[in-house]
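Thread: "does anyone have the structure for this chain?"

Original post by V.I.:
We have the sequence but no experimental structure in hand. Need at least a predicted one for the grant figures.
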Amino acid sequence: MALRTSASLLLAAALSAPACALPAVHRTSPQDGVPAINAEQRDAGLEEKVDRAVQLAQQGNLPEAALAFDAALDDPRMASAPAELRARVLSTAAWADASLRRFPRATERAQQAIALAPDQVLPLFTLSAIEAAQGHVKPAAALMVRAIGNAVGPMPINIERVSKMQRNLIKAPTERREFLQALFDNHWLDEGDEPVELWLTLAGLQHDAGDGDAVRATIARINGPMELIQLRSDKRFDAYVDRSSPRFDPRLAAQRQMDDLRVRASLSDGNDSSLTLLSATALTLGDTAQVMAMTDGIADAAAKGGQLEEPEGKWAGWLLASRAVAQRRMGQSDAALQTARMAARLAKGRPYAAVHQLNVGLMLCARGQYEEARASIASMPDLVGYGAAQQQYIRFVAAHHGGDAPAAADARQRVAALGEDAHEMQYELPLVTGQMDDAARALIAQLRSPELRGSTLLALQEMRTVPSLPATAAVDARWRQLKARPDVQAAVAELGRIERYDLFGSDSSR
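Reply from O.Q.:
Generated one for you, tokens below.
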């Protein structure tokens, strides 16, 4: 895939670059990027130059910002400024250069910043991002590990950056483990929540490295019901998991999670993700009535066609997505589609807008409205990662049922090119066409993959279900046939186990 580094992405990273591990007097505001120069340190002229460069960067005028940073750094007075301050200005200048794809100069300036302040977080974070933007995943990870190690308190880095970096390290397990271990030791959280999926990945990497004590420490922070099911079903973790203990009971874990989230939601007044997580956990427990009650107000407001005020607007799409799932499980397919469309409308312009538009396309496929499904994603740009896999799945299903063989073949090729990002689709596409041997080969290969085993075993568990929609009945029946095949059963028995749980998984009818 061609490198695509947008100026806006690099600039956003610059303006939110972490400032932890620094003395408070020099700390960078997430909005400022570079600290104001104290008048006692430098005269107003130099301060104005730096402030002007930062303002231009914030405005998105990157060519002018780069020139302004050049002027500030070339000012003779900068040479006598404190090293820590010069490192900060160099780091932010490097961001501006990288945003303009001037990677050699960006790299040089970030390295100069590190030389001036080797223990400062910002220069290391900056050079890591510059390396990552060029596809140099191992150096980027090593620099990020150093930055995290120097941070005072949890590293303020968002889940998108973390997820992308660890996915890019799939073929480098040692570096991936070191990166996740650094986050774990840093007590990093995803907006206040334990990133249990990442810790599950870390536990697998620690097991493969033979570090049993580290596995136990990591598992102690894994408490999500789906993640506990993965631990219970994967024989790699049998030595660490007491499957008879309430601690590892997935339903009890879901109930504990509900209790904790109720408290959080009552204290947060809708200002964090707790309501969204509460609705998702209620769906896991099968409490559709609670989901409907939680989302009635937002659904009524969204139905009037306006945009919701913050903070409700930030989470409205996710809450409506939970409501759509609840309606589908209650047999209200028409209402579920309408709700999914409202969620997509409210999410426009937000970071996860594509997720909600894909939900509309998937629901249309499940209802047999294939041409509408294809049209619903026609104007979307090419996505990356799992979003791209879902995008191509919708294209494939619509083309297959519409008799468009060339479009179906193109979608299948794109799924294959996505590799592990599209691992579920590797067996889902053959299920659509009834190619059961191909589906079994893909599923068994994933069971044998240490990276994919956990999520594949999770998909195979016996969960609560509701009846299939007519358009998905045949594929769901083939899924059950696939699970029952002797070759699939033999692979499961070798590596894990399948159990029945009184919980809903991600698929309502499997």
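V.I.: this helps a lot. The longest helix spans residues 250-268.
O.Q.: and The two ends are 34 Å apart (CA to CA).
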